[in-house]
From TrEMBL:
<dbReference type="GO" id="GO:0008146">
    <property type="term" value="F:sulfotransferase activity"/>
</dbReference>
<feature type="domain" description="Sulfotransferase">
    <location>
        <begin position="45"/>
        <end position="283"/>
    </location>
</feature>
<dbReference type="InterPro" id="IPR027417">
    <property type="entry name" value="P-loop_NTPase"/>
</dbReference>
<dbReference type="Pfam" id="PF00685">
    <property type="entry name" value="Sulfotransfer_1"/>
</dbReference>
<comment type="similarity">
    <text>Belongs to the sulfotransferase 1 family.</text>
</comment>
<keyword id="KW-0808">Transferase</keyword>
<dbReference type="InterPro" id="IPR000863">
    <property type="entry name" value="Sulfotransferase_dom"/>
</dbReference>
<protein>
    <recommendedName>
        <fullName>Sulfotransferase domain-containing protein</fullName>
    </recommendedName>
</protein>
């Protein structure tokens, strides 16, 4: 299993079949082979996959899911990334195979790369999505200042990675694949919107517990929500970002706000993005909240 002592960079990106990938140890070399290994992964009947695009609230929903599955309000410390298994990391598969308890798996890749066996048997998938404007701002701030990442302004990043988003398939492709899979019932998927969970965490944590078919009461749900609040997670979780920060700091959690994109997008950028969104998401059945209405 990989350890926190194993440093890795995030630049230059790897290009494969028209998409770009971070040069994580698992993706260096034969990218096609890695992706096929993921599709061929030996999924168990009770495995749960948490699928999300980068910076969509993955670790937040993962921690909530972990507590629900394990019937505890203790933080997950089973794996060095605070995730039980990252499906993009085949070198960790032996670690996963040795686990006797229920496995919570995770992937940032599009639906087409999920394990075929998992989909065919109707095993549970949680799909986490976030409005793309806040997600883009979060991604920029996450990458800025990291070891090896080029020093660029927000305006430069917007042109290179927002208008031309193709990392791990890009946000639009990722969202459309999962939403299409939900619409046509291609898999057993529960969609969790970041904004919904942010606005009403009790309601949507309860909905998630129902999907996972785990026992709960109001007291347990409230305690899970409290322990998984942004402030609590930011102060208490250890994560992989310490390995790519020049000072070894955790930078996974920044603001956790809804509507922060308004502090970054210029009027022109917002108009460009809205036009792109309308084009890409035409006839796609999803409604994101881009900013809170009224006091929170």
């Amino acid at each position: 299993m990989t350890s926190l002592d194993d440093k890795f960079g995030i630049w230059p990106l790897i290009e494969y079949n028209g998409w770009r990938y971070f040069p994580l140890p698992s993706m260096v070399g034969d990218v096609g082979k890695r992706l096929q290994q993921m599709k061929d992964f030996n999924s168990r009947d009770d495995d749960v996959i948490l699928a999300s695009c980068y910076k969509a609230g993955t670790h937040w929903i993962h921690e909530i899911t972990s507590m629900l599955l394990n019937q505890t309000t203790e933080y997950n410390t089973k794996h060095w990334t605070s995730l039980n298994l990252q499906l993009e990391w085949p070198e960790d598969y032996k670690f996963a195979e040795a686990m006797s308890e229920q496995r919570l798996l995770q992937s940032h890749l599009p639906f087409e790369f999920l394990p075929t066996a998992h989909i065919n048997k109707g095993a549970k998938i949680i799909y986490v999505s976030r409005n793309p404007k806040d997600r883009d701002v979060s991604m920029y701030n996450f990458l800025h200042g990291k070891i090896g990442w080029p020093d660029m302004t927000w305006n430069e990043y917007f042109d290179k990675f927002v208008l031309n988003d193709d990392i791990y398939g890009g946000w639009f492709n990722h969202a459309k694949q999962y939403i299409d899979a939900i619409k046509h019932k291609k898999a057993n998927i529960c969609q969790v919107l970041y904004e919904d969970m942010w606005l009403d965490p009790i309601k949507h944590t309860t909905r998630l517990a129902d999907f996972l078919e785990v026992p709960y009461d109001d007291t347990f749900i409230k305690e899970v929500v409290k322990k998984c609040s942004f402030h609590e997670l930011k102060n208490k979780k250890i994560d992989i970002t310490v390995t790519i920060h020049p000072e070894g700091k955790s930078t996974l959690f920044r603001k956790g706000k809804l509507g922060d994109w308004k502090n970054w997008f210029t009027v022109s950028q917002n108009e460009q993005f809205d036009a792109l969104y309308r084009k890409e998401m035409k006839n796609v059945d999803v409604n994101f909240v881009f900013e809170p209405s009224g006091p929170i």
